[in-house]
Amino acid sequence: MSLTVTVMLKSRKIISGLPKRSRRMQWLPALFLSFFALLFGLGGGTAFGLTKVVITFASFSEREGVLFVAKDQNFFRKYDLDAEIIYVATGSVAMSALSRGSSQFNTGSASGATLGAIAGGSDVAFIAGLVNKLTGALVVAPQIKTPSDLKNKRLAVTSIGGGTWVFTMLALQHWGLDPKRDNIAIRVVGNDAVRAQALVAGAIDGAAVGYAFAATLKQQGFRILADLSELGVPYQSTALLARRSFVSQSPDVVEKTLRALVDAIVFIQAPANKETVMKSLAKALHLQRAEDAAEGYERMKTYYDKRIIPSADGIRNTMRLFENTNEKIRQLKIEDVIDDRIVRKLEKEGLFQ
To answer: How far apart are CA 347 and CA 351, in angstroms?
Structure first.
């Protein structure tokens, strides 16, 4: 993450919330080991009697907090799983790894990458809905005071068609804005940390970022134009995806994974666990202090619901964004993208009560 910041922006100024060089070097070996594990498909088999699973994610934000907590609190091991949590650069890379079997699960959103892969013939499907609404904040330069001020400005996203692009486009549509008509430039910059640094450097005028980064930027004088969760726009923000064939072949592994995530949700929402959750979030986001994760924690505990059913309305909302540009996505039906047989089984068993 930080190497991307350094290479892309060549800036010496590191905002609070990005790691120092010494910390960067400490996690580089682990990153390369994770990369090779993903590249060579080391997700199968067992280790010390545990079933090995690889879970990828392509966004550093509070939305992925459930993964970090489940890992740190050994909830996966509770269900005899040895879970490797691996960050990849984009949703398309994550979907490629998932489709070829290098990973068993991916936490992603309803985006061009996920819907495009499914429309292209991949047997990947949304198997659980972890966050079923828009999240994060649209943070902008101080001179931007209203949504109409976004005209003729530059907004950053991780990738065209990706989750943050969808967030941004749905927000603009909500405000009656059109990027082409209103000359709003959509720039591909990178993940939350990179977009935050780009805003600090003046390379962009605004970006949707997670609440932890939004709080840091606000302290530096930037304006939170909108809390996206308050717009009331249905969206499948963070979901667990897997191959339908894997669900059929290993339903027990899928069920154990979902149970571990539900345990993590319960843990996150318990007030007594606040400090522990903040430590996990700060460590995962490479924040300098646990206190820097306070805003992210307050938001994160409201994201999740034990009833982790995928949001059909949220997925349809994204499909609508592509109906005029991607014929294959336009032809998709909701049953083509959701496989909720395991979560429905758990619901009948009373797990979500």
So the answer is: 6
What residues does each domain of the chain span?
2-134+234-348, 137-231
- The class (CATH top level) of 2-134+234-348 is alpha beta
Structural contact between residues 241 and 126, judged by C-beta atoms closer than 8 angstroms: yes
CA-based nearest residue to 339, from 146, 114, 148: 114
**pTM score, two decimals?**
0.75
What the block records as the tokens of 94 is 């994550």
pLDDT tens digit sequence for 195-231: 999 999 999 999 999 888 898 999 999 999 999 989 9
- Architecture of the domain defined by 137-231: 3-Layer(aba) Sandwich (3.40)
Q: Which of 245-252's residues contact partners 24+ apart within 8 Å by CB, and which partners?
A: 245/123, 246/101, 246/104, 247/125, 247/127, 247/339, 247/341, 247/342, 250/104, 251/342
Alpha helices in the chain (DSSP H): 2-9, 21-39, 65-72, 75-78, 91-99, 112-119, 163-174, 192-201, 211-219, 244-249, 251-269, 274-285, 294-303, 312-321, 327-330, 334-337, 341-348
Intra-chain end-to-end CA distance of the chain, in Å: 38
Identical fold at 2-134+234-348 and 137-231? yes
